[in-house]
Amino acid sequence: MMRLQLDLRSFFERFKIWAVSFRGSITLIALAGLSLFPPITRSVYWTQILISAMIFAIFAASWDLLAGYAGQVSFGHSVFFGAAGYVTAALVRYLGVNWILSLIAGAFAAVLFSLLIGIPCLRLKGPYLALGTLAFSLILLSLFYMGPPWSDILGGSEGISGLPVPPNIFVAFYLVLGFMIISLFGMHAIVESRLGTLLKAIRDDETCADASGINTTVYKLIAFMLSGFFAGIAGSLFVLQQTAVNPAYFQPLYSFYAIIMASIGGIATIFGSIAGSFIFWILSEFLRPLAAAALLIFATLLILIVRFAEEGVMNPVMERIQEYWDKFRGM
Amino acid sequence: MDTRTKQMLAVLLVIVVVAGVGVVFIMLPPAGVPIGQLFTPGAPANTPAENIIIVGILDPMTDIQGIGAWQGAYMACEELNLAGGVTVDGEDYYFGVIAEDTSESEASLDLTKGTAAATKIIEEDGAQFIIGGFRSEALLAYQEIVMDNEMLLFGTGASTDIFCQNVLDNYDRYKYFFRVIPINSTSLASSLLRYIAYLDGYLTAVTGQNITKVAVIREDLTWTEGMGAFLDGYLPLYGLEVVEHIAYPITADAAAFATYWQQIDDAGAQITVPVISAQGGILMTTQYQQLQPKCIMAGIDVMGQLDTYWTQTAGACQYEVVLQSTIRTNKTTRTIPAWDAFLAKYGQEPIYNAIGSYDAMYILAQAIEDGQTFNSTELIPVLEEIDVNNPFEGFAGNIAFLDSHDVFEGYIGDTIYSVVLFTQWQAGGVKEALSSGGYIYPDSVVTAQLVLPPWGINP
Amino acid sequence: MIEEVIIFGTVQGALLALLALGFSLVYGVGGVLNLAHGAFYLITAYIIFWTIPLFGFTVSAIVGLIAVMGIAAFTSLALIKPLQDTHIGVVLVTFALAFFFEQFVKYFGDPLYHYIAPWVPGFITLLGINLQAQLLALVIGSIALVIVVTLFINKTKIGKSIRAVSQDAEAASLVGINTDLVLMTSLVLSALLVGFAVIFYAPGNYIAPHIGWRYLLLAFSVTIFGGMGSIPGSIVGAFIMGYATTFTDYFPMLGPEYSQLIPIVVILVMLLIRPQGLLGKEEVQ
After folding, report:
1. Residues of A with CB below 8 A from C222's CB?
2. Contact residues, chain B, for A145 at CB < 8 Å
3. Cβ-nearest to A244 among B140, B160, B170
4. Is CATH 3.40.50.2300 correct for B49-183+331-415?
5. What does DSSP say about strands B430-433 and B421-426: parallel, antiparallel, or unpaired?
């Protein structure tokens, strides 16, 4: 408890310094711009897209926390997404629980699943871990798609639908924005803390970390749980936005969305996920009028981005801007 | 080669590839449906924008279902406009159609594509009424947006009962949903059962053999389970024995189908009932032709409904009897002219999504004309008047809505409502409507007799 | 039932061996997880399907093989090699490539399923079971190719380099082996094997834009089962998996309902008990 307070205080102090720094001011300007978007444009459609982008920014960042910092590359991140989605949907739809309580319950369900996956997969590394987690998500996908008697409990291919629609899309926007800011800064604080340093040590050389007395098992599990928690928040928000949940939530597709977005933004950056997610969503909506060609062009661009922006787009672009910024200030 | 040259070569290579792909993109006209563009075919050129009634089509626009729905709606739109549109309060209004892609037929379903498309079509494209929906899971998510906007949604693709159950359970919210096509899964199963019962009697009379042995082959997906159990339970009541019941994994390959036919033939089946929506149908038919098991195939093979199926299976689908919503036959007086017009306009036969969307446009036009309003909520009572006593004569049949806003299935006297036809692929790749002995539809729509495979039927 | 399991298990195993051998080889050489492996199958199948009306099957098959080898060489040089240090980069770029090919055939072809007629017509009866003659060709072809590839790797100079790099990349490059060339060779070899899998297996089967993912998953699971980077492991693994999946298809208690689930569960259990696979190297990395 004591240490937590200290951590919190140092966090606020760091925040002050950060806010006046180059990156801090850029972030705050961007956030201000984002929060002004709905009142200025009054576009329900683009607000809806930005909500999706923000939800997936949380999801991608949670993957980045696990893969980028703790070095545990997961291909089955959609498990947390789906588990939280189903719990939230069931609570809201069948028990009439308040959405925020359902969301928290969903996030904790995801934590439970992160332990379920994390513990057996502790021994696995690299592609083996990737496939192990992928296998978990595929098993859940098949289980939820199964017919009776399974479908009586799990809902079958239609899942749970007809959740209440958020009464006002603009209010929903600011709520999700709040969730994104808290989650992202939360994750950033985690990776900047002692815990983050330990995780990076495990990522870079597990044997060495083990030898220097770090209990790698416990810390890897903590990474899984934290990642699962934030992914769960994203999953719950997503189900509240879509108003329906079905087995498709467990698809590898969503795991790959997280990986793609985190990589576009830059791995091991946390905030890069925002850039990655926004680029992903806005680009795919801009390509929408091209219909059949849209996905082909999207795939081409994806190849080019991944090929030529190894560090992701956020850091290189920020560095370039900072150069100009410094030049401008030096004048 | 030093690194510099290699880098330059790599960059050059990428440029060449990108340029090549780019050129090909420009050379080829985009396949499929124009997205997010309003079309007002047949409307006078000087029609003011406020006199255009915008109908949004939501479907997977890069796949056959979406393309079909778009073509059907577009053709109806053009016909309606050329006939003068609709008149409300003495002023002429014309129709416009606009499409958004929900990508719902992709193997990996991304729900956000559907909800984003629904939001866009309502908020940006200004759609006032919606037609479409194909995959239940996707429609369940994005129909909420349409309901939220209190807008009519004509279902022209999904057959799951849940949508109409919603209308009964929560009328105030879901009353905007009307199903135009297809008939629901329960009616589908019962139609299939009635046809097999009829076929039994017919084959017994024609072959002089005692026809009692039936095999069921279905893909192992949720929707076929109920139907499989239903057939297992009810066929014995008609004196038929299910001698083989195969539920195959959706990934089964050609080798697997060879064994299935082997098992079916060994069991002595005389009728084989497929319940298949996916590619398994292609393998089933091609293996049937090669192995020539002594039985007749009659059932649901969704791919077999397409006019391309004959070439897709290289003619192997000959003798297969498939359930199909409509072919070129006089279900109503409108069916044959509309069919011919569609074929002339697009060079291909309409699939059920096309037929349903065509009818949905006409139903909407009639309701607007009768109700003298564009308000969806006020149009609902007008649409609800289209019932069994006062059906709408459409392309797919006489459409009559039930309390659940589902379509009425069956026929009364000469009036054929929304029924499915049993059709057979016959020599030369033509599809003919067979008799159902009056069990499902009257013989007035029959275009040909059942042809049995020359290799005979098991004793 | 036992006859079915033997025959169709062998057929399945022969296919899996062709798919998994190259995948495992490429992983062993460069630690490259090639998610475009299934897409190689897809694009070969479509090239053959599109060119059959022009040239007939034999020429189309050769065109398909050459094309897929070219694609593999390009992938290796332009996409994989520059990103080899960041393993996640390779995974992503090959994933994007696989996605690209899926959309490519969908855009320039159509989203429908198509059927390629078998080039070995007719049926043969083995142990009382009717079998497409095409599938017998698959078994024979697969065995022949596996032998040829094993000889190539053990006897030729480049094959020996592949083995050397697979065992210790650093040491291999120290003694002057061009690791880039070795990576490219193994990728082209894997594409060639996949191409042959298409030639033997696609005729008589359906093709559709999304089939690549299924073949990727098959190759991936066999490789995990047999041991990443182990050539004997992937061959043995392929046949064991072949018999196992066929068994679950026919085993009355389980039924096909579970047959999609069982292989994944088996892989998961395998991963948890013996992560390095049947014949994999002890060191898991």
Report:
1. none
2. 222
3. B140
4. yes
5. antiparallel
Judged against a pLDDT cut of 60, whether residue A2 lies above it is answered with no
Domains of chain C are: 2-273 (1.10.3470)
Q: C271 and A124: CB-CB below 8 Å? A: yes
Query: pLDDT at residue C191 above 60?
Result: yes
- Select the residue of B31, B64, B312 nearest C115 (Cβ to Cβ): B312
Residue B100, C-beta contacts closer than 8 angstroms, at least 6 positions apart: A288, B35, B36, B56, B57, B58, B61, B117, B118, B120, B121, B125
Provide the pLDDT confidence category of residue A234 given band limits of 50, 70 and 90. Answer: very high
Q: What is the DSSP letter of C78?
A: I
Subunits touching A (CB < 8 Å, at least 3 pairs)? B, C
Pairing of strands B213-219, B129-132: unpaired
Could you report the predicted ipTM of this complex, rounded to two decimals? Answer: 0.86
For β-strands B129-132 and B177-179, DSSP reports them as unpaired
Partners of C31 on chain A (C-beta within 8 Å) are 126
Residue B190, C-beta contacts closer than 8 angstroms, at least 6 positions apart: none
Interval B281-300: pLDDT, tens: 888 998 898 888 999 999 99
d(CA B444, CA C137): 51
**Six-digit token string for C152:** 């190539």
User: Which of B108, B116, B124 minimises the CB distance to A251?
Assistant: B108
CATH of the structural domain B186-324+420-445, one choice from 1.10.1040.50, 3.30.420.40, 3.40.50.2300, 3.40.1410.10:
3.40.50.2300
Mutate to test the interface with B, among A145, A277, A290, A301 (most CBs of B within 10 A): A290
Are A299 and C96 a contacting pair, CB within 8 Å? Answer: yes
Burial per residue of B195-224, b for 16 or more beta-carbon CB atoms within 10 angstroms, e otherwise: bbbbbbebbeeeeeeebbbbbbbbbbbbbb
**Do A310 and C97 lie within an 8 Å CB cutoff?**
no
Q: Is the pLDDT of residue B426 over 60?
A: yes
Distances in Å between the Cα of C284 and the Cα atoms of C226, C271, C280 are 13, 11, 9
- Within 10 angstroms of residue B46's Cβ, the number of other Cβ atoms is 6
Strand duo C123-126 + B411-412: pairing: unpaired
Q: What is the DSSP letter of B407?
A: B
On whether any CB of chain B is under 8 Å from the CB of A41, the answer is: no
Query: What is the helix (H) or strand (E) element at residue B99, kind and residue range?
Result: strand B91-101
Backbone angles phi, psi at B92, to 5 degrees: -85, 130
Which region, left, alpha or beta, applies to residue C277 given φ > 0 means left and ψ of -120 to 50 means alpha?
left
Interface list for C 153-212 with A (CB within 8 A): none
| Per-residue H/E/C for B192-243 | HHHHHHHHHHHHHHHHCCCCCEEEEEEECCHHHHHHHHHHHHHHHHHCCEEE
Q: How confident is the model at residue C285 (pLDDT cuts 50, 70, 90)?
A: very low
pLDDT at B45 over 60: yes
Contact residues, chain B, for A156 at CB < 8 Å:
222
B129-132 β-sheet, strand order: B86-88, B91-101, B52-59, B129-132, B153-155, B177-179
| Residue extents of the structural domains in chain B | 49-183+331-415, 186-324+420-445
pLDDT at res. C207: 86
d(CA C166, CA C164): 5
In chain C, which among 181-210 make CB contacts under 8 A with chain B?
204-206, 208, 210
Q: Please indicate whether, in this complex, the C-beta atoms of B137 and A145 are within 8 angstroms of each other.
A: no
Q: Using CB atoms, which residue from B247, B303, B312 is nearest to C255?
A: B247
Residue C72 structure tokens = 């593999």
Tokens coding A309: 């922006």
CB contact under 8 A, C115 and B28: no
Q: Nearest Cβ partner of B10 from C78, C106, C113?
A: C78
